[in-house]
Amino acid sequence: MTILICGTLAGCRKPDTPSVANAEIRTESEEFTKPRVGKVRIDTTYRGDERILMVMSYSNVTTRTFCLHGTPMYVESDEDGDGFFESLMISG
After folding, report:
1. Gyration radius (Cα) of the chain, Å
2. Do the beta carbons of residue 56 and residue 39 sit within 8 Å?
């Protein structure tokens, strides 16, 4: 019975669906200036078309947002620029 269920579920998967594990990893960078904040830089990392990480830096503040299936799951931030992330926010 177990073998039949596993075989049926394995057959439900589309053969042309690209595997996320084999997808290309790329990073896009963006820089702009905001009033009262100054220069802002955002580096976004993708696996295939799915966003997995965003790093935003401005003044001496750095935040990292980790995503699961493109949805932000947790954010950590370094507010004083010492390289130690003081805050952590977990969503969901």
Report:
1. 19
2. no
**Phi first, then psi: what are they for 33, rounded to 5°?**
-115, 130
Q: How far apart are CA 3 and CA 12, in angstroms?
A: 14
pTM of the complete model: 0.72
90 is written with which tokens? 């977990």
Burial class (CB in 10 A: 0-12, 13-18, 19+), 47: middle
Provide the 3-class DSSP secondary structure of residue 85: coil
CA distance 18 to 51: 16
pLDDT tens digits along 69-84: 889 999 999 999 999 9
Round to whole Å and give the CA distance between 42 and 44: 6
